[in-house]
Amino acid sequence: MMELRFFRDVIIKALLLFVIFNLVLMYFPRDTEKEQISLYNSIVPGRERFPFGEAPQLAYNLSLYDLDAMFAAHQVSARPGNQNELRIFVVGDSSVWGTLLEPKETLSGILNEMKLTCGEQSLQFYNLGYPTISLTKDMMIMQRATRYQPDLIIWLTTLEAFPLDKQLASPLALNNPQRIQPLVEQYQLPLEVTMLEEDIWSRSLWGQRRTYADWIRLQMYGFMWAATGIDQYYGPYEPAAWDLEEDENYYQFAPPTLPNEELLWQALPAALNLKGDVPLWLVNEPIMISAGENSEIRYNYFYPRWAYDQYRRELIQRSAHLGVPLIDAWDWIAPQEFTNSAIHLTPVGERMLAEGLAEEIEASFCP
Amino acid sequence: MTIFEILLLVLVAVLYRFIVSTQWGARGRGWILLILSTVAIFWLQPSMPIRFLDFWLPLGTLAITIYSWLLTAEFDQKRNRENWLAGVVILLLVLFIALTRYLSLEGLITANRPPQTLQVGIGLLIFVIVAILLSWLGKPSTRWLASGIIMLLAIFIILKLPVMSLWVSSMLRTWVGQSSAGASALDIRWLGFSYVAFRLIHALRDRQAGRLPAVTLRDYLNYVIFFPAISAGPIDKLQRFDKDLQKPLQLNGEVFENAFSRLVVGIFKKFAVADTIALIALNSQNAGQIQTNGWGWIMVYAYAYQIFFDFSGYTDIAIGLGQLLGIQLPENFNRPYLKPNLTQFWNNWHMTLTQWFRAYFFNPFTRSLRTHYRNLSPAWVILITQLSTMVLIGLWHGITWNFVLWGAWHGLGLFLQNRYSDWVKQKISWIDQKPIFQKSIQIFNVVLTFHFVALGWVWFALPEVTLSISVFTRLLGLGT
């Protein structure tokens, strides 16, 4: 039987330690430049793409908002094993991340499998895609990624990432206003960022409980990732719509003009600036071009023809003006090589895209 | 149980302790506990896809408990006014729970809205008629007691045999006007039936053997449906439980200390440790996905610790709640993974279950074999009894080949260990003179026993034999 005094002392000491720990968390300045502690890249291998998962127990993966934890779990943050490699970061949406694809079937996975070289130097591709469509989200990732010394950034994008309304709809962007707001201010982006209310309690153990719980789960799922190589649940899916609605509108925009002020074109010069001296390539990613019902009006579920054509013209013009190399891959892939969305490719489709990009890289990137 | 449910039960138990520590409360202790436990079994019963089953199954628990009491009670006990009062209290409580359908469109106490009052009335009428018929029985006869045990085993087989439970699920779905197409063997999840059955069989067998004390219906119900132990044990003995129930309770700081320390440890084990390890523990989903044998071993180790922390955590919570309610439930675990042989492991793992099987199967079966088959060598007797006991323990978890193989794995392990230790004792008697060597052997035995048990979990954790074999081959580096 324990004595009352012993029990009381244990409680007092535990409370004291709890209070001290919380005070440290609340008042200790955080060094965001430092890498976060992680089991990845040490005890378990780094992930080949960012953590994201809507069925964590099946995918051994989860969606979280802590960008530092996401990078710490990614193989990009591992110390480069081979000093003689050129690091190429592939940034974009779910088509880059690889929805319904195994890591080796993604664009980066296939490019790595090709074992491309520039003279003596091998090319190592890193999948920095994240499955939500927003240029602002991509810029946030790009900015955070520059500390890992890229030699080239390939940014795949599409019209769907440009509307202003889309920018903060990505939960990752929405929950990182402290990262988005400086971008908005520096590059005068026409976005209104709602800062999360941060008081002293929100920095305590209680306030940060979601972040810590996510971190623990992320580390635990690292073991399953290492044990199985699985990071996504591949359930049955509905193929992308082939027959389309007789609708000429693109969201609230009616033909004939897509208003440029409603699209975040400012993201292009901003991205060019924030990545410093590192070369940036833009890729207008492949879309499904339907030949079904109403395909004379729309290319696919996302895009009416008039809106997408205007976007393409504008993109070509603006990238040329900025001097950013643009690979216009919009029609590279046959419609049967798309899966559940007009931008998600099958493994065969990814290979076709990778082969096309590999040619461009070998021709233009290698000196 | 969820952490919310546990915390609420702790609060209820503390309030109970305060109330029954008063002079007035002490007089009503048994009644208050009966009301709490009855409401708790309806409240804790999980929701099920078959309509109204979450109401009928707890009522079923009450019915089989009362029927078994009627089978064990003496004639004059059945005529006792207090026992009739207990029956009436139960009826009123069930009726009250049924009437909550008018207070909420969803379940207020039950997981879903209770059935219509007329249906409940008919159900209760059938329940009462059967009870009256049983109450007309005279002195408890061996035949009636045996038929009670057979009935319990029959329900048990229906619930644990996937083919049978699927058939019953289909039938029930049709009965309540649902499509039988969606029927599944997992549809019927009867809260705590396994543990209720153990307690009832213990009471019926002890009555047959003349060891059962006379207890009131109220105390008998309190023993069987005692809510802290309803879902995961431990399995107490009626004689011991009743002694605690009759003891006066006081507000004692020491009891609160012990109870809360068990609760805190239990909640930590279950919700912090076990649930975290569960993310990497072997299961039917990940078993076929393992890529290397090293990670396979980690997943097997994780399962071994997950099941220990989960189960022993629940036991700690049950014991802590029991202490608050004035009942000292028996221990179920005593560092089982640190034991140097399989016999000691089973003496310290789910102790109340092994004690139950020892008392009601292993010992009587051993005696029977020795009496009826005198020519059988001791080794054969040990093999047959240990193997059959462990296979039965396996079957208690579910009637599948994997549980049979898990039981056989341990039965054979116990037999081999028994034979080996007899043989080795004679060979290495000199070891007593060399403490360092003795210690090393001890450590080796602990590691060996743990690995034997951990590998046994591969049968237990997975639903199919082929899947278990593929994991074994992977662990041995033979799989592709």
Task: Record the SSE blueprint.
The complex is a heterodimer of chains A (about 375) and B (about 475).
Chain A: H1 4-27, H2 56-59, H3 67-73, E1 85-92, H4 94-97, H5 107-113, E2 117-118, E3 121-129, H6 135-145, E4 152-157, H7 164-167, H8 171-174, H9 177-187, H10 209-228, H11 267-274, E5 280-284, H12 305-322, E6 326-328, H13 347-365
Parallel strand pairs in A: 1-3, 1-4, 4-5, 5-6
Antiparallel strand pairs in A: 2-3
Chain B: H1 3-20, H2 23-27, H3 29-44, H4 53-72, H5 75-78, H6 81-99, H7 117-135, H8 142-160, H9 162-175, H10 193-208, H11 217-224, H12 238-246, H13 253-277, H14 293-324, H15 342-348, H16 351-372, H17 378-397, H18 401-427, H19 435-461, H20 465-475
Helix pairs in contact in B: 1-14, 3-6, 3-11, 4-6, 4-7, 4-8, 4-10, 4-11, 6-7, 8-9, 8-10, 11-12, 13-14, 14-19, 16-17, 17-18, 18-19
In short:
Chain A is 38% helix and 9% strand. Chain A has 367 residues and is α/β, with parallel strands linked by helices. In chain A, strand 5, helix 12 (305-322) and strand 6 form a beta-alpha-beta unit.
